[in-house]
Specification:
Radius of gyration: 35 Å
Order of helices and strands: H
Strand content: under 5%
Shape: rod-shaped
């Protein structure tokens, strides 16, 4: 092997090593990003679940309030007719 071949091999080894290190760092960054995205998705699911439960409670309460409003309207009309 000549000196030129040895220099080219050394340059290629260095470049491949740098490329490998950059790829490893990029993969670590991608894994961290995916973990953060997973945490965000989990929090979003929790928010959706709490909103759904709040909507169910509101729906159940709305029916009770509708009966209360109906009774209140009947009472108000009865009061008006007495006057």
């Amino acid at each position: 092997m000549s000196t030129t071949d040895q220099v080219l091999v050394i340059i290629l080894v260095v470049l491949l090593s740098v490329f490998l290190i950059i790829c490893i760092a990029a993969m670590v960054a991608v894994v961290k990003l995916l973990k953060m995205a997973q945490r965000v998705v989990e929090k979003a699911e929790d928010v959706v679940d709490s909103v759904e439960s709040a909507a169910e409670v509101f729906k159940e309460t709305q029916g009770k309030f509708a009966l209360f409003k109906l009774l209140r309207n009947i009472y108000k009309k009865a009061q008006r007719s007495r006057k």
